Amino acid sequence: MLGWLLTRLAGVVLAAWLIASAVFLLGQLRPSFAEQQAAERAESPQLSLPARLALGPLAQGQPVGFGQPAFYFTRLAGPPVRWQWHGWHNQYHYWLRGVLRGQLGRSLSDDQPVAEKLAPALAHTLPLMGLALALSTALALGFATYLAAGPATTLGRVGLRVGLTGLQALPLFVLALLALLLLANPDALNLLPVSNLGSYQPSLATGRWLADYLAHLALPLLSLVLAALPELTLPLAAALRHELASPYAVAARAKGVPTRRLVWHHALPNALLPLLVTFTGLLPALVAGAVVVEVLFALPGMGRLLAEAAAAQDYPVLTAGVLLTAGARLLALLAADVFHYWLDPRLRAALA
Q: Do 110 and 205 touch, CB atoms closer than 8 A?
């Protein structure tokens, strides 16, 4: 088991490195907008020396690593085909060495360390993602067992299935806009505040900071949960119905096993096996959805930071964000393998 797990983990690290390297090298094909803008400001004759220094190394004409080749080797122009080796003095080597030391580089837009920009963004995104993941999974398990445990023609089950199907047809930005217009609109219900956590200052003195914080997260959280719920519930309910119609479930009912015990202890573990990738893929889907909800609700999180970095062609920030996102996706797939090993005794016997 340990060797199998280490092999999977090594594959995750290798895949994350390849993805981040591809993004980094693609970013070197053209100068960023922020770099061009800084160079233009630095060439302005009206700019004083202190102001020039404040613009950072890009504006001083000494960009960190930008005077070096992009990779270890490059192809020379013209026939015959020739390659030039540049050694360790190249942008990719400097970037990779910094990543291995925990240094993700500096932003091209404001010359701040990338890690200092990611930390406050993650502080807003991680609680939102964690709550959305927990609520979506819990509600999906509850709704799926409810749909599968009784007759499909009852009014409650028909209404729930129709509602989930309708939610599945709506994209995330439409769900977020509907939540905003219905629940935070003075002309409608106006029950919840519009998020805007970037300018929100929690009042620690009143002791209501947690309730206020959750109230500001409610609309983004509701949007993410509503978008993820149908994708999890409907396939799980179908898999549970298939398991409950199998011979072992019929035999268990004949022996007097209660329906609740049959569903949770016998049918659910078997139904989860083919859907583990769907459940573990929920986290990357929520990360992608964070771009939408954080921009719409003015949340200063990772999604908004990556959207702004992409618009400004700030490749150090974008590369670090892609590395984190790819790592989350690959770790989710690793978690699917681990859960499959834990739930399937046949796999445990094969790897023993």
A: no
